[in-house]
Amino acid sequence: MINYSLLSDFYELTMANGYFLSGMHDKVLYFDLFYRNNPDSGGFAIACGLAPVIEQIQTMHFEDDDIDFLRSKKVFSEDFLQYLRNLRFTGDMWAVAEGTVVFPNEPLLTIRTKAIEAQLIETLLLLLINHQSLIATKANRIVRAAAGRTILEFGARRAHGKEASLNGARAAYIAGVPATSNTLADKLYGIPSSGTMAHSWVQIFDNEYQAFSTYCNLYPNSTSLLVDTYNVLRSGVPNAIRAFKDAEITKGSIRLDSGDIAYLSNRARAMLDDAGLKDIKIVASNSLDEGIIRDIIAQDGKVDIFGVGERMITAKSDPVFGGVYKLVAVEDESHKIIPKIKVSENTSKITTPHFKKIYRLYDKTTMKAEADLLCIHDEQPDFSKPFEIFDPDFPLKRKTLNNIVSRELLVPIFKNGCLVYDVPTIAESRDYCAGEIDSIWNEVKRFENPHNYYVDLSQKLWDVKQYMLKEELKKD
Predict the structure, then answer these.
(1) 356 near 376, Cβ under 8 Å?
(2) Residue 476: what pLDDT?
(3) Cα–Cα distance between 73 and 62 in angstroms, integer?
(4) Are residues 274 and 350 in the same domain?
(5) Staple partner for 136: which of 46, 268, 410, 443, CB 3.0–4.6 Å?
(6) Model's pTM, two decimal places?
């Protein structure tokens, strides 16, 4: 197993060295990991990557060759390098469960730990949460676009590296994609693997029918024939029909990988039905995404299964999740929590200070999510009576919620460096994600112009933020 502890931006290490030399290495810091905008201008995102984060934190350590490498850079003190030899994560972490529907500017993960530990895990936290949340969000868009038709993850060969192919398959499965072409993802995670054939299988035989007939005889219970190597309607589908009938196969599929999928699938469906092969399904692939899939369905394309590769595994249309990791509080010597804020001329980059918790508020009748509420960690809002929320950007815009029930989203993961979270199986995370999607109003799930779901601040938290902003303005 690779030790990823040095997978860190170099400035994390120089800052850690600086904390050590300045006597600040034991200072306790609070960091939030959050993102600012939903991918593809959607209404929400799906949090993913927590289980790999847990694994990396549990195995965090520096080996002799890591210390030797850092020494060779000639910028780190020897005392700091010796400190790293025994470094382990000793802090606390809270996070939303994998598969949770999330929204901009609310913490997906909060860290409370010593300064050096908090800095050295930053890059790994971001790359794992950013990548898998991005792919999970994209995959779920594609699943929803298919409107009940099956989606297969076909992206291994177009992913940005080995880890991206595996983590992408994992994230897509949690988000609702039921199977992958990636065999190693099946072995590691139990994601069902499946596939058809390549054009080379058809080309290597003397003729198309021979290629199809051989495949039918070899795999009678899982036959899928690629029908666009030469000509879909003149040879591919007729030869597939002949091969199916000769092998007495009534359940299988054909795959279209090029051309006008809506038109070809309609014609192919009619040919299969006329031949009495109504249970032979049609699979489509070829650079698909949610927009193309919706168009195919709108044109009454007769596709049962969509194989989606590069545009899902790379989230091609919007390939950066944009998660950030920002300091929100520190503890003084008496363990009092002191909120911290980052101020910017770009107002979207102003952070929400303090150690926080998140409540999701549901309508008790429909159990649909109405809003999220960010509170200071020790607040106890009373949701048993009508509860007023307000837009933190436009505080005069207010709404009273009646008959609501609440749920805290951030749950304890580590306490004093010890794992206190029962990590769910990937199947459990997948089921949980499906429930999360069901709890969101359809207006929020629209592909174009989704309803704005509100992430509001408690009055107490809003007051703290405004006070800190005003104090910063006085410094000018």
Answers:
(1) yes
(2) 64
(3) 16
(4) no
(5) 46
(6) 0.96
